[in-house]
Automatic annotation (TrEMBL):
<dbReference type="InterPro" id="IPR050156">
    <property type="entry name" value="TC-AMP_synthase_SUA5"/>
</dbReference>
<comment type="similarity">
    <text>Belongs to the SUA5 family.</text>
</comment>
<keyword id="KW-0963">Cytoplasm</keyword>
<keyword id="KW-0819">tRNA processing</keyword>
<protein>
    <recommendedName>
        <fullName>L-threonylcarbamoyladenylate synthase</fullName>
        <ecNumber>2.7.7.87</ecNumber>
    </recommendedName>
</protein>
<dbReference type="GO" id="GO:0006450">
    <property type="term" value="P:regulation of translational fidelity"/>
</dbReference>
<keyword id="KW-0808">Transferase</keyword>
<dbReference type="InterPro" id="IPR006070">
    <property type="entry name" value="Sua5-like_dom"/>
</dbReference>
<keyword id="KW-0548">Nucleotidyltransferase</keyword>
<keyword id="KW-0547">Nucleotide-binding</keyword>
<feature type="region of interest" description="Disordered">
    <location>
        <begin position="223"/>
        <end position="274"/>
    </location>
</feature>
<dbReference type="GO" id="GO:0005737">
    <property type="term" value="C:cytoplasm"/>
</dbReference>
<dbReference type="GO" id="GO:0061710">
    <property type="term" value="F:L-threonylcarbamoyladenylate synthase"/>
</dbReference>
<dbReference type="GO" id="GO:0000049">
    <property type="term" value="F:tRNA binding"/>
</dbReference>
<dbReference type="GO" id="GO:0008033">
    <property type="term" value="P:tRNA processing"/>
</dbReference>
<keyword id="KW-0067">ATP-binding</keyword>
<dbReference type="GO" id="GO:0005524">
    <property type="term" value="F:ATP binding"/>
</dbReference>
Length: 274
């Protein structure tokens, strides 16, 4: 039976997190608040649970969900060949509105969809989300809405769209926590020789370049004589494409970027990210 918990009340929050943890262990879906929009989450290591998440949203395997993590040191357990520049951005903007598309650890037993060997990772700046992630471990999370519909800014709005396909709804109040509504995380493809923005969002290009000066902006190409950009963003598939499904919100707000759970991204690893 579907249950909603008001996480602004301490006792109810504790009960809700316990129920959500149990639901995740049973391969069911939960709705949780993030710092951008509400997300629908499932066990990232359960193909059954990830399939249920995609079905609940009306999405195919070509738009795999990103993965939310509870701490920065989870990065190396899920991704490989993480560059020094990618680490600089993670340290500067996590927890927060930055999603990194990285090469997935090949040894991991998971199936997020057609990711082309990549994974989109983010650490959200939301206490309820981080507490749940600490209890469950990494979660596949996409924006809590049916594909093509507006991302939910409350658990009640998510329930209107997802109904009984979700076991637990954690209500944490209106989202986003700060900034303009409808602005998703910035997505950076870190699988090539240079970092490249594939969706504009909460973290500006100037902010990124304050830490990594040669980050390529959305649509920028290397100067003549420079090594060409490779990886999902350049190929037009994989994590970068997935990043647009959850970029749904970005699309609805007029953004040309691909997405993650926030709005619906398009592309394998980053497509459905919040």
């Amino acid at each position: 039976m579907t249950t909603t918990y008001d996480c602004t009340i301490d006792d109810e929050r504790a009960r809700g997190l316990e129920h959500a943890q149990r639901a995740i262990s049973e391969k069911k879906c939960v709705v949780l608040p993030t710092d951008t929009v509400y997300g629908i989450g499932a066990d990232a290591f359960s193909p059954q649970a990830v399939t249920m998440l995609l079905v609940s949203k009306g999405r195919s395997r070509t738009m795999p969900p990103p993965v939310l993590i509870p701490r920065i040191n989870a990065l190396d357990g899920l991704a490989t060949d993480v560059s020094a520049d990618a680490r600089k951005l993670a340290e500067a903007f996590w927890p927060g509105g930055l999603t990194l598309i990285l090469h997935a650890q090949p040894s991991l037993d998971w199936d997020l969809g057609e990711t082309k060997g990549t994974v989109a990772l983010r650490m959200p700046a939301d206490d309820v989300a981080l507490e749940l992630l600490t209890l469950t471990g990494p979660l596949a999370v996409s924006s809590a809405n049916r594909t093509g519909q507006a991302p939910a800014q409350t658990a009640a709005a998510a329930r209107d769209q997802l109904a009984e396909s979700v076991e637990v709804y954690l209500e944490g109040g209106p989202r986003p926590l700060a900034g303009e509504a409808g602005v998703p995380s910035t997505i950076v493809d870190a699988t090539g020789p240079r970092l490249r923005v594939v969706r504009n969002g909460a973290v500006s290009l100037d902010e990124l370049r304050a830490h990594v000066p040669d980050v390529l902006g959305l649509g920028e190409i290397p100067m003549a004589g420079e090594e060409p950009v490779t990886g999902p963003a350049a190929a037009g598939n994989g994590a970068a494409e997935d990043a647009t499904d959850d970029a749904g919100r970005a699309a609805s707000s007029g953004s040309s970027a691909v997405t993650g759970i926030e709005a619906e991204p398009a592309g394998p690893a980053g497509n459905q990210q919040p």
